[in-house]
Amino acid sequence: NTVMAVQMTDAHRRFLQVLMSNGITEGSEARKLHQHCCETDKVYYAHDKLDDFISTINSHLQPLFMQIRKGISEDDGRAHYAVVNLAETEVTKMASDYTEIELELFRKTMDLIILSENGFASSTDILNLADQLKTKKMKKKEAEQVLKVFVEDKWLSEKNGEYTLHTRCIIEMEQYILSNYQDVARKCNICHSLAIQSQVCESCGIGMHLPCVRKYFRGQTEPRCPKCNEFW
């Protein structure tokens, strides 16, 4: 019954519905969707007001412990949007979709990825875990199928047999990862989002996403660390 400062229109509801059904939406698609929803419902549209539009939705989602969050792809630096349930942990978020043994495989895969030096885990290393699970042993063929489902559901990304966390996973589980991997999880020094794939300063230890590194050092003849000023 809380009275919100800004009324949520049908355009806002339509935008939220599509975002929830997609799981995650790339920035340019979100901008097109914003325009489409506003024009369809004949409400004011401004191309540079997407963040304000989302803020209005978030003010209405707050009592439901939900939020539309923005994150960047660690691969190319493009913005993405996902609806996050703030009341759920990683376990309860995925528990309705996966069995206990599948969740254990996911957690162990996440361990490999986050504890690695480059933010990736090979399919060989992941499949070697299949017969070491505490819930029960999993055949490698079965594990391969489960990994395929995690990729389809946008929890993992795969390239040439190497797995990393999908952008959706990073957006939704940022707080979980930061609190459960405190010794190794770090935020990007430039965009301040969780960095799984990153370059790290050998001197002071700060990390930056690869797209953020490229953007930050563009045009600099001698790249230096933004924190300690040592040569990058």
Mean pLDDT: 90
Number of beta strands: 10
Order of helices and strands: HEHHEEHHEHHEEHEEEEH
Q: Which structural class is indicated by helix and strand composition?
A: alpha+beta
Please work out how many helical segments DSSP would assign: 9
Arrangement of strands in the largest sheet: 1-3-2
Cα Rg: 20 Å
β content, as a range? 5-15%
For the sheet with most strands, the description reads: 3 strands, antiparallel
Inertia-based shape: globular
- End-to-end distance, in Å? 53 Å
The share of residues in helices is 40-55%
Low-pLDDT sequence parts? none
Protein name: Non-structural maintenance of chromosomes element 1 homolog
Subunit structure: Component of the Smc5-Smc6 complex.
Domain RING-type: 188-229
Keywords: Chromosome, DNA damage, DNA recombination, DNA repair, Metal-binding, Nucleus, Telomere, Transferase, Ubl conjugation pathway, Zinc, Zinc-finger
Quickly describe the structure.
This protein is of the alpha+beta class and 232 residues long.
